[in-house]
Design brief:
- By secondary structure, the chain is mainly alpha-helical.
- It has one domain: MetI-like (MetI-like fold), CATH 1.10.3720.
- Helices cover about 70% and strands about 0% of the residues.
- Helix 7 runs antiparallel to helix 10 and helix 12 packs antiparallel against helix 13.
- It is flat.
């Protein structure tokens, strides 16, 4: 017992758990690990994207920059010598390259048709027209054929004495020189390209239909909307992003994937009317041995593709907002 006036000894109270478990106090190692966790989570996406970004930089961006730099050098006797904008000025003076650029404008004008065809076919398949399962396979089949094979087949079909002209003659129409008329040949090649490649766009549209709200279609049918009204007011707004994707990828395919058809069907003729920048680049590099000029044409093609793609996205977004 305490004696006198001495105060009793008081033991300090302990906070925390009393069962022997370790108590984590503010400022301790556990708290530091807790703060490091969110920081690691913030950097995790960049770490996962790093391999893909490295591949893009090494295999895409770096060669592109090398090509742009090479386009400012000369060919032949001036090989490796800086020539400034001489190659680009020569492109502007070359009638074949000007024809190639004008054909790019033609492709832009024909793009809505190239997008509408697989879009309408996907709509009919989605609405389950009779035989829709068969149509899905048939429409995709040309996509697995090589452009060389497709070109060879249509060379036979479109020959002046071929089956197409024979059908025209049977109904009293004069034969058409499909691949020899400068005013017709480019449309024919583009049509064959669309026929051979719209199967992939069809698959993309069908994937887009899987995200479409079926209740909106049912409501439109109940309200008595026609097929055209359903397409315009329900399907097109609902597939706005899908249409943007198909439009951009189709345009890129037209600018970069028609070489095989051009080489087999027309070889750039007649009179250079079916030249595209891609084919012009191959001529300058592979036959004329002018890699610097070909690099300049490649740079112009890249800028054209970039500008057309951005313009398409802007116009499609504006159309989507208006709808």
């Amino acid at each position: 017992m305490p004696t006198g006036n001495a105060p009793p000894s008081v033991r300090p109270m302990t906070t925390g758990r009393t069962d022997g478990a370790r108590v984590v106090r503010p400022g301790g190692a556990g708290a530091r690990r807790g703060r490091a966790g969110p920081r690691a989570e913030r950097f995790a996406p960049y770490l996962l994207l790093a391999p893909a970004a490295l591949v893009i930089v090494v295999l895409r961006l770096y060669p592109l920059l090398l090509g742009v730099n090479f386009s400012f050098t000369g060919d032949g006797e001036r090989n490796g010598v800086a020539v400034g904008l001489d190659n680009y000025l020569e492109l502007l003076r070359d009638p074949l390259f000007r024809t190639a650029l004008s054909n790019v404008g033609l492709l832009v004008l024909l793009l809505p048709v190239a997008v509408a065809i697989p879009g309408l076919l996907a709509t009919f398949i989605y609405l389950r027209v009779p035989g829709h399962r068969l149509y899905r396979s048939v429409y995709f089949f040309p996509g697995v054929l090589s452009p060389v094979i497709v070109g060879a087949i249509f060379n036979l079909l479109l020959a002046f004495d071929g089956p197409f002209n024979a059908l025209l003659g049977a109904v009293g129409i004069d034969a058409v020189d499909w691949l020899g008329d400068p005013g017709v040949a480019m449309f024919v090649v583009v049509g064959v390209h669309v026929w051979a490649t719209f199967g992939m766009a069809l698959v993309v549209f069908l994937a887009g239909f899987a995200t479409l709200d079926a209740g909106l279609l049912d409501a439109a049918r109940v309200d008595g909307a026609s097929l055209l009204q359903v397409i315009r007011h329900v399907i097109v707004p609902g597939l706005a992003r899908t249409i943007q994707f198909v439009a951009v990828t189709t345009m890129i395919g037209m600018l970069t994937s028609m070489f095989g058809l051009l080489y087999v069907m027309t070889s750039g003729g007649p009179e250079g009317s079916t030249y595209l920048p891609e084919y012009y680049i191959w001529i300058q590099q592979g036959q004329m041995n002018r890699p610097a000029l070909a690099s300049a044409a490649s740079t112009v093609l890249f800028l054209v593709m970039l500008g057309v793609g951005l313009l398409q996205i802007k116009l499609l977004r504006r159309a989507g907002r208006e709808d």
